[in-house]
Amino acid sequence: MRKIYVLDTTLRDGEQSPGVSLTAQEKVEIALQLERLGIDRIEAGFPITSKGEIASIQAVAKVIKQATLVAFSRSKEQDIDAAREALKGAEDACLHIFLATSPIHREYKLKMSKEKVLDTLEAAIQYGRKYFSKIEFSAEDASRTEVEFLCQVTERAIKAGATIVNLPDTVGFATPDMFGQMFKTIRENVTGIERIQLSTHCHDDLGMATANTLAAIANGVEQFEGTINGIGERAGNTAVEEVALALETRSDVYQAKTSMVLHEVYQTSRMVSKLTGMLVPGNKAIVGANAFAHESGIHQDGMLKNRATYEIITPATIGVTSSKLVLGKHSGRHAFKERLIDMGYHLDEEQLNTAFAKFKELADRKKEIVTEDIRALIDERAKEGPVPFQLDQLHISFGNHSIPTASVRLLTEQGDVMEDCAIGGGTIDAVYRAIEKATGFSAELEDYQIHSVTQGKDALGEVHVILHQGDMSSRGRGVSTDIIEASAKAYVEAINRLVVRQREPERDGNISLH
Ligand SMILES: CC(=O)SCCNC(=O)CCNC(=O)[C@H](O)C(C)(C)COP(=O)(O)OP(=O)(O)OC[C@H]1O[C@@H](n2cnc3c(N)ncnc32)[C@H](O)[C@@H]1OP(=O)(O)O
Ligand SMILES: CC(C)C(=O)C(=O)O
């Protein structure tokens, strides 16, 4: 397997993400994690940016022992001097000089002719070589540069003393075929190419950064550059973790590998997200929250039978404990049953079918069903059976300038319909009054408690009530994604218990709480 070097530029190009600015301490923390991740070269910053940037790189230089520390620099002596200052304490240092080479950058940004570009990069590299044995030269906007000129640029950089030549796709314009071909041409036409390492650095403007990086690797580059989670200027850089895992998973195609400690990938991603404030989208490859989560019944069934049906990487590879079978609207019986067994429930086929139907009903109203939701569902199901009253329909009307009104429709054991409506001091008061009128049963509400079973706006609400009537009292519990419905269910359940006790006083006793 060919070794591919990784230059991580989270602390430089990653920090160029709009709104991101890392303190020295944060840079140190991330750099140490990058070292644990087995990154070969850590680009810690762009020293000429500010005094604070130099101090941050110096702080990183003090702690980094294994990786090569890289500092970025324009083709200017003042930038190189700032880089010298920043890297003076580094165990192993590399100066990274860049200059744009494409027609548009030459004409409008740099206002330099081709000759001037060649002379400028040569002078800068020669100046850098006085202080650094390792020099990377980047031809900014290489993918939009005339390929013959890019050959001249690369050759001049090698002659001047560069040890790595990086050809970036600065604005994410390249396509994989075109980009691969560019490296092939460079390898075949540049004198002295065997003396240096070729590198690539891609941006994700068209979502092709990883594909372009892999095309470059397939065409012989020895180093790729990227950032953790793909953060960076505009749409970001190549995500280091994506390329590393692509090489690992498709070694049959690329025959190349990084030295990255892959089980540190997830931890690194979390840290970078936390410290930069750049959230990782749920569907992000490798490190997104859904990368190892399965919600669809057919996929879950496949996973339970053989995980390779729907996973090409094991979560443990990147340091995630396990895959997740998320229960939701699209889930099927296999996954539901598996979760019940994990929770210690053993239902027969009929019970499972009833519980599954309830689960689907809930899933229509709630995005993700968690263990506590299922427990609430099963406990609810356990108390089903013929009851004196069953809540069938509930309507409420509420406005901050109107009187709360509720109407309810209940079904009796015999199938009779009992309907009524009421107003109240609040919505729940109105609902409870309507239930009392419909059932003809009135009791004193001694206690009312509500809490959320799970987290989030769509969480199940659980209501507990205690009712008193004469010397009898009873409890009721109701669960629903809607707290008014949960409240009504709890009230009806408590009334049912009172009714049953009144019918069978000798069995239930008069004053016990259930
Ligand atoms: C592809 C990349 O990611 S490039 C890196 C981008 N990152 C950053 O720019 C972040 C840090 N930058 C900064 O703090 C500032 O831009 C500094 C300190 C570098 C320069 O600031 P200023 O001196 O105020 O210049 P400003 O940023 O406005 O303009 C850039 C100048 O550098 C020149 N320049 C751009 N690239 C290079 C280069 N590789 N080599 C030499 N000169 C360059 C531009 O032509 C322009 O020169 P001009 O002033 O003669 O027109
Ligand atoms: C100059 C290189 C390294 C770069 O940051 C880019 O092209 O985006």
From TrEMBL:
Keyword Mitochondrion included in the entry's annotation: no
Subunit (UniProt): Homodimer.
UniProt-listed PROSITE patterns: AIPM_HOMOCIT_SYNTH_1 (PS00815), AIPM_HOMOCIT_SYNTH_2 (PS00816), PYR_CT (PS50991)
Top enzyme class: transferase
Record protein name field: 2-isopropylmalate synthase
Cofactor(s) in the UniProt record: Mn(2+)
InterPro entries: 2-IPM_HCS-like (IPR050073), 2-isopropylmalate_synth_dimer (IPR013709), AIPM/Hcit_synth_CS (IPR002034), Aldolase_TIM (IPR013785), LeuA/HCS_post-cat (IPR054691), LeuA_allosteric_dom_sf (IPR036230), LeuA_bact_synth (IPR005671), PYR_CT (IPR000891)
EC code(s) of this entry: 2.3.3.13
SMART domains in UniProt: LeuA_dimer
A family per Pfam: HCS_D2
Organism phylogeny: Bacteria, Bacillati, Bacillota, Bacilli, Bacillales
